[in-house]
Design goal:
Blueprint (H helix, E strand, L loop, with lengths): L11 E7 L5 H14 L6 E7 L5 E3 L24 E4 L7 E5 L6 E5 L2 E4 L10 H9 L8 H8 L1 H10 L7 E5 H6 L1 H11 L3 E5 L9 E3 L5 H9 L4 E6 L5 E9 L5 E3 L3 E5 L8 H5 L5 E4 L6 H17 L5 E8 L5 E7 L9 H8 L4 H14 L6
Parallel strand pairs: 1-2, 1-7
Antiparallel strand pairs: 2-3, 4-5, 5-6, 8-11, 9-10, 9-11, 12-13, 12-14, 12-16, 14-15, 16-17
Length: 376
């Protein structure tokens, strides 16, 4: 039977998840939420997992298999499933399934890829570049915006150049730490304690520590270096509240902003760590809208849209801020593929702003379908 033309069938959406980063499990959880929300009457869905060794496989479409259970029982891509690749033909965007001892079976043309990948080898411009080379449309930011936003050191450079306020920081590498650890310690002392030590290109709060004084620096740096050979030392925003804003493009490309939200972390969590983000019952409270004056809320939304455009973002982003008691705002970071788990801030902010989860997913797919690959 001949494959129906794109004009005579529902758009085919490949949801790609998993990946090689330490955020593999969280990506799977996000994919479960997206798979649950996509309107199957409007779209044909192809779930594709990337195993931790980098192999692409045709995954189960059952979102229940991708639920989070605990911090040490995260879902994972089943690497034993049939391998899948994009056809090696610049005129085709076919997906080809390779069953063991069987000839390749085509899944037909893919209209758009929804890459719900977090961290390196997915959110950092790598898969975006691959899709651009293959001529495949995809949800979210392009190569440059993804790469800049993933690397917190370069993100700060770009945001500062656009006139946006950021926290003081220094960047060190594994080579610098190995060759001159004392020099790195002096740089840390130069910006002052307490400070946060972060993998420069990580997410989900994995590998992040708070060093209250010099005695805690070495262990914090080693923890971060296990995730990334490039580490950011950033002044802690003492006394500030953590406030976030969602940005979503309208169909004409204009960035729209959501109602801001505030995170309040309680219990034993000194900051918004992995457990506070993703595990139920971890004393994290969310206020939507955030308790801000109208003037501060309006300025926060303006800065969020400015940050989105400063890095050349597309589709969606979550912009995180520190809000200080005097009303001043500092950009913490911009996340080009924020989580879509049930407890994630981005979909909650848009739901409170009048756009529910299924409608949000649909908007992102429609945005991807209407734009071309390549220079734009």
């Amino acid at each position: 039977m001949n494959e129906p033309s794109a004009a005579s069938r529902k758009p085919r959406v490949a949801v790609v998840f998993g990946g090689r980063s330490s955020e593999h499990g969280i990506s799977c959880v996000t994919a479960g939420s997206v798979l649950r929300a996509i309107d199957r009457t409007a779209y044909e869905v192809v779930p594709i997992g990337i195993a931790t060794d980098g192999r692409w496989v045709l995954e189960s479409g059952d979102p229940e298999r991708l639920r989070i259970e605990s911090a040490d029982r995260l879902p994972a891509v089943d690497g034993n499933r049939a391998s899948i690749v994009l056809a090696q033909d610049s005129t085709s965007t076919d997906l080809v399934v390779h069953e063991p001892s069987q000839p390749p079976q085509t899944l037909g043309e893919v209209d758009v890829v929804f890459p719900v990948l977090h961290g390196p080898w997915g959110e950092d411009g790598t898969i975006q570049g691959m899709l651009e080379m293959a001529g495949v449309r995809y949800v979210g930011a392009g190569v440059l915006a993804s790469a800049v936003s993933m690397d917190k050191a370069y993100m700060k450079v770009v945001l500062q150049a656009a006139g946006l306020p950021v926290m003081p920081s220094v960047t060190i590498t594994r080579r610098q730490w190995d060759q001159d650890a004392q020099g790195c310690r002096e740089q840390a002392a130069g910006i002052g304690y307490p400070l946060f030590v972060k993998p420069a290109r990580g997410g989900s709060s994995i590998g992040i520590s708070k060093a209250h004084d010099p005695s805690e620096l070495d262990e914090a740096v080693e923890t971060a270096l296990r995730e990334d050979p490039k580490v950011l030392l950033e002044v802690a925003a003492e006394g500030a509240r953590e406030v976030e804003c969602g940005v979503l493009q309208s169909l004409d490309g204009t960035p729209e902003t959501s109602m801001p939200a505030e995170l309040r972390v309680g219990g034993d969590h000194e900051f918004y760590d992995f457990a506070a983000k993703y595990l139920p019952g971890e004393h994290t409270e969310i206020d939507i809208p955030a308790d801000l004056t109208d003037e501060v809320a309006a300025e926060l939304r303006r800065l969020a849209a400015l940050a989105f455009e400063a890095v050349g973002c597309e589709g969606l982003a979550r912009v995180d801020f520190f809000a200080f008691p005097d009303g001043s705002l500092v950009v913490n970071e911009i996340n080009t593929m924020p989580g879509f788990t049930p407890t994630s801030m981005y979909p909650q902010m848009w739901a409170a702003s009048g756009l529910d989860y299924p409608a949000l997913v649909d908007r992102l797919i429609q945005l991807a379908l209407q734009r071309d690959t390549g220079l734009r």
